[in-house]
């Protein structure tokens, strides 16, 4: 089954095509400030590298959050447009799940952290047992100190906020704190694709019309009482 997956949850932008157990092509660009200017070009480039057309894929997968409000909106809108026009199924995948997947073989508690601005992080905790990734807690937006509170075992931290707050995490946890290698902190679209495949096989996919970002925290416009506009 050929899946075209993309991630726009942070400043990086990633597109990949996976055919069940085989990665056909992947392209990731870091520090892209405006995803809307580059996303379709990345999709076209990846399709060319995989020797496929977009219409040849069997389904689409996309990060639904948490992450950048604007970035998530752009990625999800793009996938919804492709899915509607081609009548293809869509799977939504958590950005924190994807980061955890990139450390899945670790024997440690896996702690993905994404920068949520305002001196907060999006956080979750996972364990990899019996070849399955399982959440220990629910996704949440908290301070960096709260994100590491209650950890009493060796843990591996991954994600852009793990890099930003590395010194504070190390000071708090000491030798219990371990950090993913440099290349693992950026969400890869192939991780989104791998995570989506079981759902496609079980025919457990999203209602495209109802697919929306999972922000965890409300956009600033709603918090300030300016209505329900989405800003990032």
Structural overview:
The chain is of the alpha/beta class. It folds into two domains: 2-95 and 187-223, Nucleotidyltransferase, domain 5 (2-Layer Sandwich), CATH 3.30.420.40; 103-184, 2-Layer Sandwich (Nucleotidyltransferase, domain 5), CATH 3.30.420.40. Helix content is 32%, strand content 26%. It has eight helices and twelve strands. The chain is globular and about 50 Å long.
Helix and strand content put the structural class at: alpha/beta
Structural domain tally: 2
The major β-sheet equals:
5 strands, mixed
Lateral strand order in the biggest sheet: 3-2-1-4-5
Number of helices: 8
Strand content: 25-35%
Q: What Rg is obtained from the alpha carbons, in whole angstroms?
A: 17 Å
Roughly what is the average pLDDT, rounded to an integer? 91
Can you tell me the CATH architecture of the largest domain? 2-Layer Sandwich
Q: Helicity, in percent?
A: 25-40%
N-to-C SSE string, H for helix and E for strand: EEEHEHEHEEEEEHEHHEHH
Shape: globular
N- to C-terminal distance: 34 Å
């Amino acid at each position: 089954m050929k899946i075209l997956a993309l991630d726009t949850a942070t400043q990086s932008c990633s597109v990949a095509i996976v055919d069940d157990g085989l990665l056909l092509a992947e392209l990731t660009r870091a520090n892209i400030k405006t995803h809307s200017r580059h996303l379709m070009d990345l999709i076209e480039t990846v399709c060319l590298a995989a020797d496929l057309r977009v219409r040849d894929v069997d389904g689409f997968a996309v990060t639904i959050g948490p992450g950048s409000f604007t970035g998530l909106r752009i990625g999800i809108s793009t996938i919804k447009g492709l899915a509607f026009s081609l009548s293809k199924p869509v799977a939504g995948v958590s950005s924190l799940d994807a980061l955890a997947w990139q450390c899945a073989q670790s024997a440690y508690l896996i702690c993905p952290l994404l920068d949520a601005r305002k001196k907060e992080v999006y956080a979750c905790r996972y364990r990899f047992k019996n070849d399955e990734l399982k959440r220990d807690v629910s996704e949440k937006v908290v301070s960096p100190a709260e994100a590491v509170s209650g950890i009493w075992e060796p843990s591996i931290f991954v994600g852009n906020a793990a890099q930003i707050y590395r010194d504070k995490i190390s000071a708090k946890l000491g030798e219990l704190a371990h950090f993913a290698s440099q290349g693992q902190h950026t969400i890869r679209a192939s991780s989104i694709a791998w995570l989506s495949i079981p759902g496609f096989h079980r025919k457990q996919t999203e209602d495209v019309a109802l697919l929306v970002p999972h922000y965890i925290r409300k956009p600033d416009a709603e918090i300030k009482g300016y209505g329900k506009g989405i800003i990032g």
